[in-house]
Amino acid sequence: MLHTHAFMAAHTPVAVLGASGFAGAELVRLLLGHPTLEPSFLGARGDAGMMVGEVFPHLGPIASQRFELVDALDASSVAAAFVALPAGESATVVPGLVEAGARVVDLGADFRLPADAYPGWYGFEHGAPEWLGKAVYGLTERAREAVAGAAIVANPGCYPTPVGLGLAPLFETGLLDAGTTVVVDGKSGISGAGKAPTASSHFAALDGSVRAYKVGRHQHTPEMELAIRSAGASPAVTFIPHLVPTVRGVVTTCYARLAEGATEAALRDVLCDVYDGEPFVRVLPEGATPDPKRLTGSNGCELSAHVDEHAGTAIVIGAVDNLGKGAAGQAIQNLNLMLGLPETAGLTSVGVYP
Amino acid sequence: MLHTHAFMAAHTPVAVLGASGFAGAELVRLLLGHPTLEPSFLGARGDAGMMVGEVFPHLGPIASQRFELVDALDASSVAAAFVALPAGESATVVPGLVEAGARVVDLGADFRLPADAYPGWYGFEHGAPEWLGKAVYGLTERAREAVAGAAIVANPGCYPTPVGLGLAPLFETGLLDAGTTVVVDGKSGISGAGKAPTASSHFAALDGSVRAYKVGRHQHTPEMELAIRSAGASPAVTFIPHLVPTVRGVVTTCYARLAEGATEAALRDVLCDVYDGEPFVRVLPEGATPDPKRLTGSNGCELSAHVDEHAGTAIVIGAVDNLGKGAAGQAIQNLNLMLGLPETAGLTSVGVYP
Amino acid sequence: MLHTHAFMAAHTPVAVLGASGFAGAELVRLLLGHPTLEPSFLGARGDAGMMVGEVFPHLGPIASQRFELVDALDASSVAAAFVALPAGESATVVPGLVEAGARVVDLGADFRLPADAYPGWYGFEHGAPEWLGKAVYGLTERAREAVAGAAIVANPGCYPTPVGLGLAPLFETGLLDAGTTVVVDGKSGISGAGKAPTASSHFAALDGSVRAYKVGRHQHTPEMELAIRSAGASPAVTFIPHLVPTVRGVVTTCYARLAEGATEAALRDVLCDVYDGEPFVRVLPEGATPDPKRLTGSNGCELSAHVDEHAGTAIVIGAVDNLGKGAAGQAIQNLNLMLGLPETAGLTSVGVYP
Amino acid sequence: MLHTHAFMAAHTPVAVLGASGFAGAELVRLLLGHPTLEPSFLGARGDAGMMVGEVFPHLGPIASQRFELVDALDASSVAAAFVALPAGESATVVPGLVEAGARVVDLGADFRLPADAYPGWYGFEHGAPEWLGKAVYGLTERAREAVAGAAIVANPGCYPTPVGLGLAPLFETGLLDAGTTVVVDGKSGISGAGKAPTASSHFAALDGSVRAYKVGRHQHTPEMELAIRSAGASPAVTFIPHLVPTVRGVVTTCYARLAEGATEAALRDVLCDVYDGEPFVRVLPEGATPDPKRLTGSNGCELSAHVDEHAGTAIVIGAVDNLGKGAAGQAIQNLNLMLGLPETAGLTSVGVYP
Questions:
Q1: Domains of chain D and CATH, by start
Q2: According to a count of CB atoms within 10 Å of the terminal CB, is the N or C end of chain A lower?
Q3: How many residue pairs bridge chain A and chain D with CB atoms within 8 Å of each other?
Q4: According to the model, what pLDDT value does residue D11 have?
Q5: What is the ipTM of this complex?
Q6: Which of the four pLDDT bands, split at 50, 70 and 90, describes residue D101?
Q7: Computed from CA positions of residues B173, B178, B180, B181, in that sequence, does the dihedral angle turn out positive or negative?
Q8: CB burial class (10 A; 0-12, 13-18, 19+) of residue B88?
Q9: Is A296's Cβ below 8 Å from some Cβ in C?
Q10: Residue C201 is nearest to which of B22, B191, B197, comparing CB atoms?
């Protein structure tokens, strides 16, 4: 039986598996301010046994709590689990959690794609393909009902989140040419690459640098194509991400051929209509462009639509905090729905700025 | 009669005067998440008439609200007012607010010093010296009772906050030599200099730069001396602030002659004892040093104490978010006390990190 | 008669008009290390009369020299002039310089486009359309001979430089589909926006920010189209620049439809062939992507070519220091050619790194 | 017999040992632009066998050259060697180089201090104490003659360079109280910590951070004391370095008790006199403060002197590029002297700015 709000105690215990990574730490930070959910188990692998304060001194209130081994979780002791493990590991952990009755939000990639996509894009065979059918792709604003009832929510990747929210309604309404190729030029801060120190995450390498990476082979490409396919279109997506010298935030600049007769005003109107009243999605007025800086620490997403008339190109720009709406924030938004809690519980749309 | 919590409606209206500056925006951001207080009046001068979203797009939920002229406030309509106006302007505004029954937290400098300090350090004669006696210097952890009962709280400056919290207990316990000169070397992000674009706030000038400013004449110097004097000592303070390429955060590295026989452990023990149980002050363990990055958006303060035995020097380091515990956060902490609300209402000690 | 090297004294005097801006300062910095050219006249408008050291303290060796009024230049006293004035101003100044016998490299936009392009893209009528025919578009590697003999060289814009160097050879060899639209997604540091402090150049606004600007209407668009047209193709270009938190450097990520049968190896081979032996253009090996950080302070340009086979998209990425090869460096490279000096005199391809 | 200029070929071969670190790369960059010296041997340990371009893509002109094993150097094939190896390793390498006739500039710490200082400050016993007497401490402006004739020059550390240049003349002239303690508060970019990726060099950790490190136990402390002792005074130095989010540049803010009757003007006059005509040391005018940003990539040093009269404190601030005058630049300046070349050959005092 699924846990829902009627059964929630004031302090509903949830597990965070992969709590010692950046997404995990953001989940914990948000949960410390959540009115209902309580991070009762912090699972890790390499950092198991360490105190939280040694790894993340900003989490002062639980500095002396320890990370436990992921596998030490008694799944029946929690209402739900956030899984933020490296690609390929979720598939080995999630089935057991679900069988023990826990609702699962998986922040990894293991439940986002069909099984045959994993060898090519991720380099491994999926470990539990029979479970893929139980997962719902949790781009919340486009999948509320399905999320609410799901056993497993596949939390979207950071880049696909603004791409899906921005493009899907425009394909659905026929404002973008069905035969277009979609170009997505992404820019991301370093936190998306994780906490492990590497040559490219060194401050001396990244400060002052702007550099494309994984050109033509970033694993978020098929996820974007699926998100657009949910809108009834099937363009190929060329996605080139760039690393820029920021910590948080992604911007996706999408280019597509405008449908005959469509206008910038029509694009903007559709987005405004679709997201009217949404607590976390803000469609910007004419002339304005999204900036993830304004969303730091929040679950907000900014979108804008533009037309380059002289070339017939539609441009749709989106921004999120990759650790917020692009990861931990959307995960909590999804779990709120799954547990029958207010969708906005523990979340804000207002970033820390400047 | 002073407003206190018994009389507070669920949504207690408060004014923010100077809401279109950085400290003002942070007050508004925090108030939007406060369970009781509500920013009902956003006063500005130059930006009056503009929509909030035009000036601060991150404040999405009130984007279409407008800044009003400071002088248009009907003080009887609010329980309290935060005043974040340029130096010299508070003194002309605060008396009227108090007379109309509003509790006031002044984030400016006008009520922090004796009247005779203003010409030398601030370059103007104080405009309402007879009101200085009604103000309490609101370094919260050292003045809780007085703050709770005050009509006017002079909210401390960003630099003096960690200096006062770190040094005062050590002078009080005699661990620092009474005859010492205190050297305070400060480092601050640019938000402390305000929102107005200038040659030195230009990204191209500040990125990659570290530079001392206002050498020997920063106006926070006498405030630090007063904060230390509250501990019964009267050293002269030499304070040199430096601008570093960050947005938020100040670090103060204080140097003083160690008292005969004092040890690093003794210094740390005193600070641990004094701040044991404090929700917002964290004394770091041996070997660790404060970092304002961990406090971004929070009301936290980190402190550490060290001894350089070979030179007989005590080093006390502190860090705050200059817009948090160094301005808006501490201001809300103080107003919470003044209104009988839980001291931590609307505040967190956990910064947005990384 | 045109000045050439045979007539050059060891110290050949040149003027820099607009010397108090960022491009002007970089010209001066490079000229101070140039073996032949000597900055004998530093012209400015608003800063005229100020000492160089007041505006640019890094130019220590000439700190006490003063900026003079642009109009005070006696053109016959210099062999050549660099003109780095705001758009629209060059057209009023350059003709007189040429008539007085000075060779001119114009770093502004006034001599880059046909006259009818200015009202739409720049918002003004060209002031000296009859002089446009005397100017050569100075994308050096593609116009050496014409540059050498020109009276006026229109120095390319920062963004069009890597776009033209990267795309033109690929259109010329038919590897890109002639019917494609070209998408150029640009990323630039703040120095490209000039020295004047503004809301968007404030460190507190830019740090942590990534934001598209001038969407669909950036004035470098027609210049890119012309640069590609020189290769015999006439695609429409959609160009969206983004401001990222760096000081120097631009990256241009260009997307075009691959011609039938073309391959990534073929693209790279063409670029390697074309730029083999070039001192300032480096074509990167497979898998590598350009990074302007490596070019800081240099006249280098990095290029890479890629193919996304699943979408049939060619991706050509370029990077320059916008003040180097994107402005002052290329200007000196061009003047070297014009004066018969070694093309590399006073220039380096090695950036200051890290 | 010592090599001097009379014997120098146009291209004098020199070795760089430790060429794959940041200081080594800066040596190579500067040598590529040096009129006489040529980096003929690039020695490394872990990176031996790699191509230069794989490790440092900015060094394009020698991208396909390979790092060789340090121990493979035939010392008789070079006129001189720069040694930039980890602490403790120089002592094992330098004697052999000298015996083979090479002049040596050691950028490490092994020849800066008396033997008995190493166990306490560096944690190891010195490996060749009998060679310490052959080394000259190469703070160039204070040791020109000795440097010129030395077999081994111990190149000063980055922090001690501006401290020694700033304080020594003021102690020598009696303007600072002989009984003072000297407080040195240092700020440094991350390049000083080397190329190896670590938790604290991660961009996500350092961006937005300001943090003291090695409090009271930084190994540059005794070097500062020695540099001051050369001026006839023997104060204890308390030195606290801070890591700030920049790549290059150190600032040292020194505090000392002013001698009776001394004035700010007197301090500045002494520094101006001492460094009048120096190509690389600039004493700033009243009110200005040093900024390493202006020195990026250069061999310059900026100094300023101030007095806080109300506390009787003298403040002497210095800035260098830690890889320039703080390492590679000064090393080349020293070798120029040793080989009888012009002292400024291959060096500039003008940084890349902004």
A1: 5-156+325-338 (3.40.50.720), 160-322 (3.30.360.10)
A2: N
A3: 54
A4: 87
A5: 0.96
A6: very high
A7: positive
A8: middle
A9: yes
A10: B197
